[in-house]
Write a structure and sequence with these properties.
heterodimer, A: 153 residues, mainly beta, 2 helices, B: 310 residues, binds adenosine-5'-diphosphate, binds zinc ion
Chain lengths: 153, 310
């Protein structure tokens, strides 16, 4: 693999095999640049890949992701792997997995859905209507949300 | 069959057997619904009717149903004048209502509102229409009308015409009709055809249906003509509404080619889609249909709140 474009990181997380075009959404999910993250972040887009023709890669130093971030990544990049790097080595590798039920991660595409009514104490809740391409069926209004990346919280 | 304390949010909450059970009881409720016989089946029980959107038939027939069974009703028919205008959430309104009443009937402009209400209420919630979403008791009374007027639901060729895109009643009804094995013909202008998710659901459940743009061509084969209003308030774009308003009109000239036994239904209110001349003809059943809302809702209330007796 031609992976010499970026300096190796000592500790951190490499999100690999991201669906091409989704790297910027992944950055948003992990809160970059908003949340005052100090660490170095590198983004590789449209890298040739063995498994799928192209992929994006995001590398973050000194950071590990929490569960809701991994769950969101699973929704927009179903083939992504999360690699934990310690002392320059991959010490853990997880394949992301989209859950059957998606709770509190995505906003319903239907503007007149009760879950979009301001101040109503309710978390959005979807079942997976289709995995590829991902389609979520709202547990409240029953409408389908297709553009999941655009409607992530 | 035990319905005690159950919510009714979507017609899909009910199996075919559940529906038949409700319709059988509704038939037994007819004399009480007409006022020929008295019932105290829900004596002392209180129903809250929370109507955040206007309604005539649905609200009045729920209230009549409850009172015919000896119960009483609290509620509002318009959210103005309630604390909702002060910004109260639906969740809070529902928690208040469940502490005052034994069951809640809810109409709300947001889709999924009844599901939310059911999440927050320990008392049963009956959905009386959530925006462009579900309106299951309308479907039950539509099925009851077909059964009372045609003897059975299956074996009928049922034409649904009008706004099939935004019209919530036709979504639930087509689902239920396919459950019963009726054959369905969908007639709408191209921009108001049945949404793809409803069609794919019909396909999955083995529903027999076809689509047409002209009403004239399907009238001769129809047993039931179900007409809906093209609802101005559901159109995001007024221009889109202008193009299709008045697209279909059911009048005596159109019905001249119909079977003698054809029945014409409409959830009402109608505007111009059915000519007044049809009212006095042999096909009109929409006023009977509006009345059938009472026995059907009596049956439902009795099953959910009482012992399933009338
Ligand atoms: N120290 C490191 N610094 C930056 N990236 C690394 C480091 N170690 C591994 N990677 C990257 O993490 C991803 C997963 O690594 P690895 O498990 O070795 O590869 P693969 O999943 O292709 O078998 C690859 O994109 C690799 O280039
Ligand atoms: Zn929704």
């Amino acid at each position: 693999m031609r992976d010499v474009k970026v300096t190796p990181i000592k500790n951190g997380t490499v999100i690999d095999h991201i669906t091409p075009g989704m790297a910027l959404h992944v950055l948003k999910i992990i809160g970059i640049p908003d949340t005052g993250v100090q660490s170095t972040v590198s983004v590789l887009m449209r890298v040739p890949s063995h498994k799928e023709k192209w992929k994006d890669i995001v590398k973050v130093e000194d950071r590990e992701l929490d569960k809701s971030q991994v769950d969101k990544i699973a929704l927009i990049a179903p083939n992504a792997t999360i690699n934990i790097i310690r002392n320059f080595n991959v010490v853990e590798k997880h394949h992301v997995e989209a859950p059957d039920e998606v709770v509190g991660l995505v906003r319903c595409e239907n503007p007149s859905c009760i879950t979009n009514k301001p101040r109503e104490p309710v978390r959005s809740r979807f079942t997976v209507a289709c995995r590829d391409p991902l389609q979520l069926r709202c547990g409240y209004c029953e409408r389908i949300t297709t553009d999941v990346a655009k409607h992530l919280f | 069959m035990d319905f005690t304390g159950r919510d009714l949010v979507s017609i899909r909450d009910l199996s075919k057997d559940d529906i038949l059970f409700i319709l059988d009881l509704a038939a037994k409720a007819m004399p009480v619904a007409r006022g020929d016989r008295r019932s105290r089946a829900l004596d002392g029980r209180i129903l809250a009717t929370l109507f955040f959107e206007p309604s005539t038939r649905t609200r009045l027939s729920f209230e009549t149903a409850m009172q015919r069974l000896g119960g009483s009703v609290i509620g509002f028919s318009d959210a103005s004048g309630t604390s909702v205008t002060k910004g109260e959430t639906l969740a809070d309104t529902v928690r208040m209502a469940e502490s005052y009443a034994d069951a809640i009937v809810l109409r709300h402009p947001y889709e999924g509102a009844a599901k939310l209400a059911a999440d927050f209420s320990s008392k049963p919630v009956i959905n009386a229409g959530d925006g462009a979403g579900q309106h299951p008791t309308q479907t039950l009374l539509d099925l009851f009308t077909i059964r009372m007027e045609k003897g059975e639901i299956a074996e009928n060729n049922i034409v649904l015409v009008g706004d099939l895109k935004y019209g919530r009643t036709v979504h639930s009804l087509s689902y239920a009709l396919s459950l019963f094995g009726a054959s369905i013909t969908l007639v709408a202008p191209p921009t108001l055809q049945m949404p793809p998710e409803v069609l794919s659901h019909l396909r999955e459940t083995g529903g027999r249906f076809n689509q047409a743009e002209s009403l004239e061509s399907v009238i001769p084969g129809a047993d039931v003509l179900y007409v809906t209003r093209i609802q101005k308030e559901r159109f995001p774009d007024p221009e889109e509404y202008r193009k299709v308003e008045g697209a279909f009109r059911v009048d005596n000239a159109l019905l001249a080619n119909a079977k003698r036994s054809l029945i014409v239904m409409h959830p009402l209110p109608r505007v111009t889609e059915i000519a007044p001349e049809v009212d006095s003809g042999p096909h009109c059943r929409y006023f009977n249909q509006a009345f059938y809302g009472v026995p059907v809702r009596m049956a439902l209330l009795s099953l959910i709140l009482g012992k399933g007796e009338i």
